[in-house]
Amino acid sequence: MVITSLADGVISGVESVTSGVSAALFDRPLRLGVTGLARSGKTVFITSLVANLLDRGRMLQLAAAREGRIEAAFLQPQPDDTVPRFDYENHLAALTGPTPHWPDSTRAVSELRLSLRVRPAGLLAGLPGPRTLHLDIVDYPGEWLLDLGLLDKSFADWSAEVLARIANRPQAQDYLAAQGAADPAAAHDEPQAQALAAAFTGYLHAARADGFYDCTPGRFLLPGDLAGSPVLTFAPLRSVESPPRGSLWREMERRYEAYKSKVVKPFFRDHFARIDRQVVLVDALSAISSGPQAVEDLRHAMVDILSAFKPGRNHFLNRLLGGKRVEKILFAATKADHLHHSQHDRMTAIIEALTREAQDRARFAGAETAALALAALRTTTEEMRHHDGGELPCVRGTLLDSGRQVACYPGALPEDPAQLLVPAQQGATRWLEGDYQAMRFAPAPLTLKHGSGPPHIRMDRAAEFLIGDAL
Ligand SMILES: Nc1nc2c(ncn2[C@@H]2O[C@H](COP(=O)(O)OP(=O)(O)OP(=O)(O)O)[C@@H](O)[C@H]2O)c(=O)[nH]1
Ligand SMILES: [Mg+2]
């Protein structure tokens, strides 16, 4: 499917040139969506991608860069006036300044346009002059994709489902008690509605912090400028027989519907539906170190997130997209610099297995998919250390919390991903074999060589997969 559409593009392009139309017609924008759950590495990924496309010394696996066909790369005003600009300069300054630090957490959609002037290759090589690819990079929280599942659900169904799911979670006990004490059929009382919404939001935050990913509605965690508004002041309630007008239940139902139509649908219409290529970033290592439950939960979240890319089952999205589909999806395990490179293949196998169900669906929808382990910013160096008569493949870096330089061995990932995924699926509470250490490294002070972006692992491969064919 991708090959066909590409071939179509080439043929119509050649026709338009032979018919004397300017090659400027080739200048077309390509929208690259970058998503992932909170803290998965979206901001650092985009910052590094842009910096490394501007200065391409470390992008040898990107064919157009290696062949010297990219004549210029520059940032331009983005096409959408109402979307915040991705704060590239500040994020880069944070990562590469004199006292390097990680950029702040970001809480909403943002966008940046990078334009690449390229000399065409292959069939188009004979064309006069370079053409320009406008790459519109869009950063949006993966949590917002999870909300797609709400569109087909009534308030009653959603409530029942959520209450059943959280019944045994310790993080939810306060909310469940508050909800149990409230009478859904009683007259709506705003302070009570606010208290319930606050308690439910508290549960979502606690669950998220403990590694649960099924934390919708997504905007409750990332409200942006909607904080405190009625569309975010609802919570799941137990069902009652024909709740009267003006009851708490009816008002919550109304707000739930408003959330769907005023928050969820506009996001899909204005951002999601326009994406051509997509990266889904996954911090699998953190999930693995949190334990089997977190891994199983992450797998579920991936299935849910990716269901947005197989819109067949969702009427709203189907109508919205018409025939348009995302052409390529890259699943990337981030922060691969936490592992010695000898473990990267295993990390890739895990990310493939973790997203297999989701990938199969996307493939079904006609998108080309790939999986990769990468680090947007490499913070470590590798070394072998003697231990118990053997050699341990370690990484050395500066720990974020203590500022200490350490050589770490995070644990051996299994060769067969099933060794992690199967116990996770079967509800194991801890790993039987092996222990995985969570670490956070600080970005290392850098002196960037002229013409080179920040050090990374496989960002060039990621770029080749995502945009190589368009260059
Ligand atoms: N070692 C290492 N750590 C990384 C890398 N990328 C991200 N991190 C870590 O992950 C954290 C989150 O990265 P961000 O890029 O801010 O993640 P995000 O997905 O934008 O997070 P939110 O905006 O909060 O959703 C950073 O503060 C770093 O601690 C990387 O390439 N290497
Ligand atoms: Mg961010």
Topology:
Layout: H1 2-18, E1 28-36, H2 42-54, H3 63-66, E2 70-76, H4 88-96, E3 110-118, E4 131-139, H5 143-146, H6 148-151, H7 155-166, H8 173-181, H9 190-209, H10 218-221, H11 248-270, E5 277-282, H12 284-290, H13 292-306, H14 315-321, E6 328-333, H15 344-354, H16 356-364, E7 368-373, E8 381-387, E9 390-398, E10 405-408, H17 418-425, H18 459-467
Parallel strand pairs: 1-4, 1-5, 5-6, 6-7
Antiparallel strand pairs: 2-3, 3-4, 8-9, 9-10
The chain binds guanosine-5'-triphosphate (GTP) and magnesium ion (MG).
**Proportion of β residues?**
15-25%
Query: What spatial form do the alpha-carbon principal axes imply?
Result: globular
Order of helices and strands: HEHHEHEEHHHHHHHEHHHEHHEEEEHH
First-to-last CA distance: 19 Å
Secondary-structure class: alpha/beta
Outline the low-pLDDT stretches: 1-25
Percent helix range: 25-40%
The side-by-side strand order for the widest beta sheet comes to: 2-3-4-1-5-6-7
Overall number of strands:
10
Mean pLDDT: 87
How would you describe this structure to a colleague?
The chain is α/β, with parallel strands linked by helices and 471 residues long. It is 39% helix and 15% strand. A seven-stranded mixed sheet has the order 2-3-4-1-5-6-7, sandwiched between helices. It has a three-stranded antiparallel sheet with strand order 8-9-10, with no helix packed on it. Bound molecules: guanosine-5'-triphosphate and magnesium ion (MG). Magnesium ion binds next to helix 2.
